[in-house]
Amino acid sequence: MSQARQSIARTFGAHAILITYTVIALFPVFVTVINSLKSRKAIFADPLALPGPATFDLVGYQTVLKQGDFFQYFLNSMTVTVASLFFVLMFGAMAAFALSEYRFRGNMLMGLYLALGIMIPIRLGTVAILQMMVASGLVNTLTALILVYTAQGLPLAVFILSEFMRNVSADLKNAGRIDGLNEYTIFFRLVLPLVRPAMATVAVFSLIPIWNDLWFPLILAPSEATKTITLGSQVFIGQFVTNWNAVLAALSLAIVPVLVLYLIFSRQLIRGITAGAVK
Amino acid sequence: MAQRKHVRWHIAVFLAPAVLVYTALMIVPLFGTLNLSLFNLDETKTRVFAGLANFATLFGDPRWSGAFWNALANNAWFFVVHMLVQNPVGILLAALLSSPRLRFSAFYRTAIFIPTILSFVIVGFVWKLILSPIWGIAPGMLDAVGLKSLFAPWLGKEEYALTTLALISVWQFVGIPMMLIYAALLSIPDEVIEAAEMDGVTGWSQFWKIKLPLILPSIGIISILTFVGNFNAFDLIYVAQGALAGPNFATDILGTFLYRTFFGFQLQLGDPHMGATIATAMFGIILVGVCFYLFAIQTRLRRYQF
Predict the structure, then answer these.
(1) pLDDT digits 0-9 by tens, A146-155
(2) Structural domains in chain B, sorted by start
(3) Residues in chain B closer than 8 A to A214 (CB atoms)
């Protein structure tokens, strides 16, 4: 009896804490999105009210779409993110395969060398990266960003993927070898499809910091034609800081695409995190 | 007959792209930065070898050392707030989430992780708006519970600004310790928990005596990730307070100090050599922290094999 009551109380307490924290986590996003849909007067009169017929207004979105070249920024962000992810996954998987499949002198050392980048942030090399990009004429190009993000994502990708590749059955690969497949075919046709879940995990992990980065776009590619959405909205908000409708609309426009992507991939992400740790 | 080993070219082909890109854009620039910090410009604007003079300037010259020690102290406090708030809250949430038969746990997990995926630009501005005395969401909410007298323009006061920003950063990143601890808790085998229940160890004492010792390695990893992340932070401060890290440098951390020094800001001219010196100092701090963790903490953690 008392045991059961105690357990109900405990469940209730757990839900109370979790709901409180969920509210704290979602409240700022919620406030921003609902107020972006209201008229200027209503934003200040009652910030917590939902937009009603009397207060509904899209003036903020109109200002944003008229002023900033958000579509271009969005395209730049997409280009940089997709290209960097492709190279991180491709090069990372190739290196991980070499490290996990073959025994050669220096294997261990090479693994450590590549893992070093997980602990040392690439930002500390910014001074020299900028000089290098200036010297090679890559400043204000998306190529510069793609190169930097590829280097930034590789250490973690190699680390995670080589863990997973150790589990790919050796019999399968040897069967392929007996059938006369060369090492490249074994990698691309046999191993790569099998580690696809791990690739998805790495993709999600690498995607968030690349999409959200402000440091490298600000330093390597601040020109109008190469601004990413993160830098673009930062600059836009800085200029329109007193136009609350526009600021809230710009923030909402920046939140929604990431949120949708996250909700689509969240199961994959959570499965990836838990699978990595359970191993 | 001794068979001569042929060169296995495919290994080199598989490794080459990753190693080349990584070396060219990560390792070489890092050493380039370390190297640059040893040089300086003389009166005729030619580069001369300066040895450790830049470091002596950074740590000892009153024009530089004040700003440096201020940034370092602020950065240390930023880290302390994360360790005291982010990690315990993350562990608590993970412990609650991992309790069996909890309903809606997938919903809670997804919702609490949302701030982590948002960019610093969004997080910085949204919180700036919410805490702004002009808009009045924060004072209005405190008023509703009768605590209006507690409200202050937190981001604008020297004594509160840094702590407020640290808490905003905690809000954003609490999902990461939560997820990692949650994963660690799920990996504890059921037999261990069942054995504990047979012995009458349940509820909180089960958490403290059985689960916590088992997840200590994960807590160690989270601590070192927090350390590296915090001493490398820049974006949130830059977005919320600008490169000058106001009010009166009260929120200046090493990342913003590096940015201002290297690129210059307003009246201050950019100085690549001092910038490289600061980056090298940050590298040293992170290296010391990581080594301390690897040799002093990780070797003492007991790992249990199931």
Answers:
(1) 999 999 999 9
(2) 76-254 (1.10.3720.10)
(3) 119-121, 234-235, 238-239
- Note the pLDDT tens digit of each residue in A35-92: 888 888 887 777 777 887 877 888 888 888 887 677 888 889 989 999 999 999 999 9
The C-alpha atoms of residue A37 and residue B47 are separated, in whole angstroms, by: 56
- Whether residue B253 is predicted with pLDDT greater than 80 in this model: the reply is yes
Which backbone phi and psi does B5 adopt, to 5 degrees?
-75, 130
User: For position B113, what pLDDT does the model report?
Assistant: 87
Contact criterion met (CB < 8 Å) for A212 and B118: yes
Q: Tell me the pLDDT band of A28, cut-offs 50, 70 and 90.
A: confident
Percentage of chain B beyond pLDDT 90 is 20
The torsion of the CA quartet A144, A147, A150, A151, rounded to 10 degrees, works out to -110
A121: which chain B residues are within 8 Å (Cβ-Cβ)? 228, 232, 286
CA distance B230 to chain A (A): 11
Q: Which of A18, A80, A143, A216 to mutate to test the interface with B (most CBs of B within 10 A)?
A: A18
pLDDT bucket at B56, cuts 50 / 70 / 90 = confident
- CA A277 to chain CA centroid, Å, is 20
Looking at the complex, report in whole angstroms how far the Cα of residue B47 sits from the nearest Cα belonging to chain A: 15
CATH 3.40.630.30 correct for A62-278? no
Q: Is A50 on the interface with B (CB under 8 A)?
A: no
Task: Calculate the average pLDDT of chain A.
Answer: 84
Query: Is there a contact between A128 and B96 if contact means CB atoms under 8 Å apart?
Result: no
Chain A 55-94, residues with CB within 8 Å of chain B CB atoms = 87, 90-92, 94
Q: How far is A132 from chain B (nearest CA, A)?
A: 8
Alpha-carbon distances of B75 from A59, B25, B70, B124, B237, rounded to whole Å: 41, 27, 8, 18, 11
Residues sharing a CB contact under 8 Å with residue B257, sequence separation 6 or more, in sequence order: B67, B68, B71, B245, B278
Query: Which residue bears the tokens 């919620």?
Result: A30
- Rounded Cα–Cα distance for residues B155 and B162 (Å): 8
